[in-house]
Write a structure and sequence with these properties.
β7, α13 and β8 form a beta-alpha-beta unit. This protein folds into two domains: 97 residues, no CATH class; 229 residues, Rossmann fold (3-Layer(aba) Sandwich). The longest helix has 29 residues. It is globular and about 60 Å long. By secondary structure, it is of the alpha/beta class. The strands form two sheets. It has a six-stranded mixed beta sheet. A two-stranded antiparallel ribbon has the order 5-6.
């Protein structure tokens, strides 16, 4: 995280708004500090917030700033305790700019990355070598791949042609309105991004970079797409299906996972599946049928609700991320000597911390587990085709 206003634009529009609310003197003080001073100050502020149990506020610029020692006193309305040199007035952030960057989640627009070079571009912008990367996590937007998209065909509100077995984007001829054409374009974009991730992985493996790949998407149209079923991909990736209820979620959500390593899911059922109620996230009804406590779609009384409903649906269960990351670590540790010998000498760069890149990071459900394992976590996301947040 950075306290530079422009850098915060790439992290969150809300952070930009919070920055503009700071006293001008505080802005001057923060921007004058070195990166080392800011990192140390931020780490101390985060630790204090965490101790107070304010985990949700840790990434809030305003919340962390109130904890910064020497910047301001305990109350925001008091004057700074330090005398500051006069500087040019900090211009407020243009509201129109905030509206434009609001759909951007984190770092880079994946949809604009050069074909076969997604990881290359991320590493270049982050100043790291691809040989530093242990894993690439990829949770493609599921909006156009979802089972629910098929139910929208009767309303001409669908992205794909679900009458065909490979679920291609709807044809241009079927788009009679601008809104329908936007749906088609989004499906095309999601297909191209998926193909780019796979092509980047294949090229990097050929070039001797042996990071692991984990692709995730709710069971739906993605498994039907030709680029996910080619002979080369099926040799390099293994597809496994799990149910989120087997990993502690109160609802059943079947999800496909493609991994570059052999992995046997466990969860709380032994195989990562619901197994007709072995997950324990519900009870049998009078007819003897198992019903989950919560459903994603169906009767309103059991529907998932709450303020952060979408975030709950997008996020992967923590225990699932732990299982997958442990499998990544085991695979990488067993192949350390081989990977070092195959990486080109010009790309070998000693590092004290291994890297995990999270493509289409959304709510960053991987962050906690990744960082707890000692990895550097790099979240990357897209600018959605339409206004609004990412659909997972």
């Amino acid at each position: 995280m950075t306290w530079e206003p422009l850098a915060n634009l790439a992290q969150a529009a809300t952070a930009v708004k919070e920055w503009t609310k700071l006293m001008e003197a505080d802005q001057h003080k923060l921007t004058a500090m070195s990166a080392e001073e800011l990192n140390a100050m931020h780490a101390a502020a985060v630790a204090e917030l965490a101790a107070e149990g304010s985990e949700a506020a840790i990434h809030s610029v305003a919340a962390v700033t109130t904890k910064l020692p020497g910047v301001m006193e305990s109350r925001r309305d008091k004057k700074p305790t330090l005398k500051l040199q006069k500087r040019k007035k900090v211009a407020p952030v243009n509201e129109e700019m905030i509206k434009k960057v609001a759909p951007v989640n984190l770092l880079y627009d994946i949809s604009e990355c050069e074909f076969e070079h997604i990881i290359t571009e991320v590493c270049r912008k982050e100043g790291i070598s691809k040989s530093d990367v242990d894993a690439v996590l990829c949770s493609l937007p599921c909006e156009t791949f979802s089972h629910g998209d098929a139910s929208n065909m009767s309303r001409d509100h669908h992205h794909r042609d679900h009458t065909l077995p490979d679920k291609p984007p709807r044809s241009a001829e079927s788009c009679k309105t601008e809104a329908a054409m936007v749906k088609r374009e989004k499906a095309l974009m999601h297909d191209e991004m998926a193909k780019n991730v796979l092509a980047s992985f294949i090229k990097d493996r050929k070039d001797g970079f042996n990071y692991e790949l984990v692709m995730e998407n709710p069971l739906g149209a993605l498994r039907r797409r030709p680029y996910m079923r080619g002979e080369q991909i099926e040799k390099m990736l293994t597809r496994t299906t799990v149910d989120y209820c087997a990993y502690g979620k109160p609802y059943r959500k079947a999800t496909d996972l493609w991994t570059s390593f052999e992995w046997m899911p466990k969860g709380n059922t032994g195989n990562g599946r619901c197994n007709n109620g072995q997950c324990g996230m519900g009870e049998e009804n009078k007819a003897g049928r198992f019903k989950h406590k919560v459903v994603i779609a169906g009767e309103n009384a059991r529907r998932l609700g709450g303020k952060h409903q979408k975030k709950q649906l997008w996020s992967l269960p923590k225990t699932l991320t732990e299982e997958l990351l442990c499998a990544v670590q085991e695979k990488q540790q067993s192949a350390v000597s081989d990977s070092q010998s195959t990486v080109p000498v010009t790309e070998q760069c000693p590092t004290t911390q291994r890297v995990v890149i999270d493509l289409f990071s959304g709510g960053e459900s991987w962050r906690e587990v990744v960082e707890s394992k000692g990895f550097r976590y790099i979240p990357v996301d897209i600018r959605p085709l339409c206004t609004g947040g990412k659909s997972r």
